Amino acid sequence: MMRKLHGSVAKLVNDTLPERRVPFWGSDDHDDYFDGCLRNETQYRRAYRYTKLQAVRAGVVRDWRDYPHTHANVELEAGLKRALELKAFLTQIPYPRYRNR
C-alpha cells in the first residue's frame, strides 16, 4: 500500500517541478523512505509524516496543505488508535534492513 501511495504522490509532485529530481523520495541518508508494511507505531508515525511532507521537501510548497494532491483524511492519532485497536501492525514480519544488526 505505501509503495503505491508513495509512487503516485511522488509522480504528482515531480510532475510540477521544472526539473525531475532523482531520487525524489529521500534525504541524503534515505532514512525516510517507506516501501513496505508498517510494523509498529514508530513506522506509522514516520510514514504519515513522510507522506504529508513530500511536496514540502521537494520545495513545491511551504505547507503540505497548500499542495492539492496531498490529503490526510484521518488524523495521525485517530489512525494510530484504530490501528492499535485492530492490531493492524505487522510486527511478525522481519525487517531485512535491521536483521543483521
Model description:
The protein is built from four helices and no strands. With 101 residues, the protein is mainly alpha-helical. Helix content is 47%, strand content 0%. The longest helix is centred in the middle third of the chain and has 17 residues, at 41-57. α1 (2-16) runs parallel beside α2.
Characteristic terms for this protein:
0% strand, single chain, 101 residues, mainly alpha, 47% helix
Helix content: 40-55%
Strand content is under 5%
Low-confidence stretches: none
Mean pLDDT: 78
Per the principal axes of the C-alpha atoms, what is the gross shape?
globular
Using DSSP, what is the number of strands? 0
Radius of gyration, in Å, reads: 15 Å
Largest sheet, if any?
none
State the end-to-end CA separation. Answer: 27 Å
**Structural class label:** mainly alpha
**What assembly state would you assign to the polypeptide chains in this entry?**
single chain
Q: Could you state the order of secondary-structure elements as H and E?
A: HHHH
What's the short story on this structure?
The protein has 4 helices and no strands. The protein has helices at residues 2-16, 41-57, 76-86, 96-99.
Write the layout of secondary structure elements.
Elements: H1 2-16, H2 41-57, H3 76-86, H4 96-99
